[in-house]
Amino acid sequence: MQALLTIYNIISMLASALIMLVIIQFIIGLLFAFNVVGRNEFLMSFYDAINRLLDPLFRPIRRFMPNTGTIDFSPLVLILLVNVVLIVLDGIIRGMA
């Protein structure tokens, strides 16, 4: 049982890091969209790296989402899905106790 809790804690920590990356990508995208920051080389390369990391996760979600124009809801859906998976895993582990 302790091993399952340890694995759950590791998965939860990785999920939190993923959610933070999604939020950072969203914020940097807004800063670029509203021209708050200039397109300096460091920020552009950081944003591009995050996009390349998250795009394989967003792509399947975008296939099933309706086209909403300029608003992309796939980051929100990904965050919700990650939280649902964590809740289900927590329920499974608590049910085994």
Alpha-carbon distance between the two ends:
7 Å
Which structural class do the helices and strands define? mainly alpha
- How much of the polypeptide forms β-strand, as a percent range? under 5%
Work out the count of structural domains: 1
Distinct helical segment count: 3
Largest sheet: none
Helix coverage percent of residues?
Answer: over 70%
Unreliable runs: none
The string of secondary-structure elements, in order, is HHH
Overall spatial form = elongated
pLDDT averaged residue by residue: 93
Cα-based radius of gyration, to the nearest Å: 17 Å
If you had to describe this structure to a student in words, what would you say it looks like?
This protein is mainly alpha-helical and 97 residues long. It has one domain (2-96). The protein has helices at residues 2-33, 41-64, 74-96. The longest helix has 32 residues, at 2-33.
